[in-house]
Amino acid sequence: MNDHQGRVNIPILIASLLLSLMLWAVVFAQNTPADQQRIDVRLEPGALDPNRYAVVGELPKSIAVLVTGSKQRIQELRESREVATLDLSASREGRNPYPVALPARVRDAAADPDPQILVELEPVRRLAFNARVETTGQLRDRNYLLDELLREPKQVTLSGASTLISAVTDVRATLQLGTVDPEQGDPINVRVWAYDRDGRRLEDLRIEPPYVQVTPILRAAPQEKPVFVLARITGKPAPGYVSAAYAVEPDQVVVSGEALILAGFSKVETEPIDITGLTADRPFLVSLKVPRGLKVRPRQVRVRVIIKPSGGANP
Question: Which of 44, 206, 257, 278 could be stapled to 294 by a disulfide with Cβ–Cβ 3.0 to 4.6 Å?
Answer without folding.
Answer: 257
